[in-house]
UniProtKB/TrEMBL annotation:
One of its GO terms (cellular component) is membrane. Keywords: Membrane, Transmembrane, Transmembrane helix. This is Integral membrane protein. It comes from Acrocarpospora phusangensis. The chain crosses the membrane at residues 146-167, 173-191.
Amino acid sequence: MGGSFRGALVTAALLGAYPVLVVAALCPWPWVFAAACAVSYAAEAKLPKSVAIQLSRVHLGATVRFLTRETAAVLLLARAIGPESRWFALLAAGLFLCHGMRAVQTGLALYLRRCHALKPVESRNLGVVFPAAPPEALLSWRGVRLLYLDVLPVGLTAAGALTGAAWPGALGAGAALLLMAGATLVLLWHVRRVGPLADRRRVIRAVDERVRAYRPEVLLYFSGPADSVYQASMWLPVLAGLDRRAVIVLRERALLGGLGPTTLPVLCIPSAVDMMNFRGLDTARVALFASNVGNNIHMLRTPGLVSVFIGHGDSDKEASFNPFTKVYDEVWVAGPAGRDRYRRAAVGVPDSAIVEVGRPQLAGITGERPATPYRTVLYAPTWEGWTDELFHSSVAAMGPQLVQALLDHSVRLIYKPHPLIGHRCPAARAAHRRVLAVIARAGQPAGRVATDDLYACFNQADLLVSDISSVVADFVASGKPYAVTNVAGRPAADFRERHPTARAAYLLGRELTELPEILAQLDKDEDALTEERRALRGYLLGEGDAMGRFRRAVDNACRRAGRTSGRGPVDRCPPGVAC
């Protein structure tokens, strides 16, 4: 309500200032003009974006508003000093030239932005060198932002009118013109350097040559919104530990900024045509897919390439046995539980296509309780999913109450929400904000929102409280107690049968009546479900060295690709390339 009122007040001040400017210029009243100028500039700076868009739709956009103010300044000078003054002509000509220079500068900035930010192929860790982009300030200060430079001629015209001087306004116009001309000259210098980026084929060829020299064998292919890039990032250390050359292939530019750190080569190819014609990936034998999205088709259609769905964590959610998964040559799961999910779901994935590879990411998870004098609980809920009937997330149903109850029991709380919480459901988004408010009121060290990665949070916790998701399956690797929220209120036996990851979990209903007994288990060396968790770990995650199993699965897939495509062996380190 307060924001709407302020927006209306700013809009009224802005629109009301222009008639005052014109009247003050005609009278002439320099003091009134100066005051109206100050109000109009201040209101312009505070104008809500939504209001600015509406004003543009009724032909009162920023350019019209600034031109009106400048015209009023010219009128003021004509009435206060006289149009026969040479300074009057210089002011009018200077303002005219400023708008022409603004158009040139904006055009150059947009051209450079397109060349640098919209390259057909982006790359990292491949040694491809292109001209550096101009300073961001030169590219972002364009268009409407440059209009604010007219404060120099308009403001100095008002000041000159107060003293009867005509020259300050012309001087201000000259100063604004010089600033724009300087920025334009710098951009022109960058335009001369940007030639290689203006040629799409040249850019693609430069990157393609480096990828050909690298000769990738395994690629991780990922497409999706920027907030889903964690699904690819979790596999980066695993791929870096392979004995084969791996490359990351992304499809959206926004993913590049969010991708985790890696020394592996990274490509981003937004265009489907460029993607399907990029020959540098021809040596790849295996394509790994971390999510099911429509853009996968551009890689799935590549002949002689073994396609493998590796997902982004095993869970009992429907995403871990999606019928679409049958389009892949192989499906890699963590342990026997993953194989059983596909058998029960009968979605068309043959048992022979399923390979158990463990979860190599979990190597750093420890089973030791944190050496602290207090109990630490990690609350890591999942997001709400695409439909309400699935009862995926506990945040909307019980999140704020659960967090408050944990704090009331004097535990140290770590809140690690799923990155997509509130993505679809307003109720979940509102509940998430209430959880943040509860934690903020409690303050540290009672509660905090995690900024470190999920597995680091595992090692800091005595107990996990989560929903049915891959978080639960991964936490089982620690052997520590965990509770799963039973949002739908199913009978315990039915819930555990439906969700095997909860077989060794304490169940927590919406009323939280089980919470005191669950927390009491933390005071024991071995709680009531310790043995069940030990047995469940092998079922969910498999036995043995997960990284070794993953490497063997990659090797087998590469051999399968070689047999089906007739490709010969690929040397580990081609001549002239550091591996």
